[in-house]
Amino acid sequence: MDKLFSGTGVALITPFKKDFSIDFDGIEMLVNRLINNGINYIVTLGTTAETPSLSFSERKKIVDTVVETVRGRIPVVVGIGANNPLAINEQLHLFDLSKVSAILSVTPYYNRPQQKGLAAYFKVVAEQSPLPVIIYNVPARTGVNMEAATSLHIAKEIPNVIGIKEASGNMGQIMEIIRHKPKHFLVISGDDAITLPLIACGANGVISVIANAFPKDFSDMVRLALAGNFDQAQKLHYQLLDYMTVCFRDGTPSGIKAFLQEQHLIDDYLRLPLVPVQDETRRMIQQLLKTS
Q1: Per-position DSSP letters for 249-292, written without gaps between them
Q2: What is the distance between the alpha carbons of residues 141 and 242, in angstroms, rounded to a whole number?
Q3: Beta strands 133-137; 41-44: pairing state
Q4: Are 244 and 218 in contact (CB under 8 A)?
């Protein structure tokens, strides 16, 4: 599993048409572009996919489209999250997961559970899942932070949980997980801008947003860092840093969709309550791309 999910995973966007229907041709184009530019695996139905705005029938068709387009060339991870185990179980039966390599499951949101509740929740999720589970800690979105001690307990006690996408932004917390985790357990950056330092500390890679737009440069940076070539990796990191900063200025996926539109890859439509970036942010994106 460390080989399957080391390197650069990409949290795939969901492109929409003007009528806000899903652009499935756009999904196929983006998936092929990512693979051709060296990314290691694709994550579909994550935060960046605007998953809360998708119906379950749309989610199923997106997974089928991604799997059919990938054709086994790289692993596919499907985001399956909820705030109770029964809903997870229902979703697990919704999708054809026969050609999927793992699921990404976010900490329960809105409930604001105790740490003990988080551990118990993921124990049930792991028992229900026919696939390995990568847990996802993103407190800015869920309202609860999974502490290092809880993540380490899960890593050591629940075999089917193979790793964590850590997007708390708390370097101390993430380093504590890396320092004490079992050898098999993956620590994956959930923040593009701190991927390089986290790899230097022992992380296994990233599930990236900005790599939707810059798959070659970002995956090259990660590959160089994992190989210990930090001088070259650092050069790419700083070339990408302004892109990463502006990308998240008005939130995601608004920022990354603006980049992709300016690269003439998709139309910049988002489903409410999300809206496109502000004019100032768009001008910044245009200027960055003009001078790159």
Answers
A1: TT-TTHHHHHHHHHTTSS-----TT--PPPHHHHHHHHHHHHH-
A2: 23
A3: unpaired
A4: no
Q: What is the pTM of this model?
A: 0.96
Q: 3-state class of 185 per DSSP? A: coil
CA 255 → CA 21, 215, 218, 219, 242, distances in Å? 20, 16, 17, 19, 12
Q: Which residues are part of the catalytic machinery?
A: 136, 165
Which amino acid does the sequence have at 181? Answer: K
Specify the CATH class of 7-229 in words. Answer: alpha beta
Digitized pLDDT (tens) for each residue of the chain, 292 residues in all: 668 899 999 999 999 999 999 999 999 999 999 999 999 999 999 999 999 999 999 999 999 999 999 999 999 999 999 999 999 999 999 999 999 999 999 999 999 999 999 999 999 999 999 999 999 999 999 999 999 999 999 999 999 999 999 999 999 999 999 999 999 999 999 999 999 999 999 999 999 999 999 999 999 999 999 999 999 999 999 999 999 999 999 999 999 999 999 999 999 999 999 999 999 999 999 999 998 7
**What is residue 5's DSSP assignment?**
T
